[in-house]
Every structure is written in C-alpha cells, then in structure tokens.
Amino acid sequence: MGQPDGVRRAANDLAAATPEVFAQYTVSEALNSYPGIGPLTGARVLGEIADDRSRFREARALKAYAGTAPTTVASGKSHAVHH
Questions:
Q1: Backbone torsions φ then ψ of 68, nearest 5 degrees
Q2: Residues 3-39 pLDDT 10s
Q3: Are residues 3 and 36 in the same domain?
C-alpha cells in the first residue's frame, strides 16, 4: 500500500463521517433545503460561513460575501448590472 492509497482511504473515511457530524448542527436542515446542497456541500458551506448567525445579518450580506450579489456599474450614459 502506497501513500496514494492511504490518502484515498482517509478521504473516503472523511466523506463517510461528514454527513453524520454535519447533521448535528442546527443550520444543517436549512442548508440541505437549498437545491443542489447535500451533506457534503452543506458542510463546506458551513465551514466557509461558520455557525455564527450574527455574522451575516441578512441574505444580501451573504450573497455579497460569496460574490453572487449583482453589482451595478454606471458611467455617463451606460448602465450595466453584472452577476
């Protein structure tokens, strides 16, 4: 058994344990309710935004942090909205 086998086994063990641990967080149900977010992706999102609900007081702040909030660029006669 080489090092790649050990790394693969460790990654598989982590992927198997993540849903059980993620389910212990109160926000897991809310994160899992979003389309396309399952236990593994939800755990990654939770890791990025943390379990501190006061960190992002409204959805707009979280969207801005994630870089998905629309931005308006206006200069002279042109006006554009980007995502």
A1: -110, 0
A2: 888 999 999 999 999 999 999 988 888 888 888 888 9
A3: yes
- Taking the C-alpha atoms of residue 81 and residue 72, their distance in angstroms, rounded to an integer, is 4
Residue 1 and residue 41 in one domain? yes
Q: Name the pTM for this structure.
A: 0.60
Confidence of residue 68 (pLDDT cuts 50, 70, 90): confident
Total domain count for the chain? 2
Same domain, 36 and 75: no
For the chain, the farthest-separated pair of C-alpha atoms sits apart, in whole angstroms, at: 66
How far apart (Å, rounded) are the C-alpha atoms in residues 70 and 39? 27
Q: Domain range holding 74?
A: 58-83
The identity of residue 24, as a single letter, is: Q
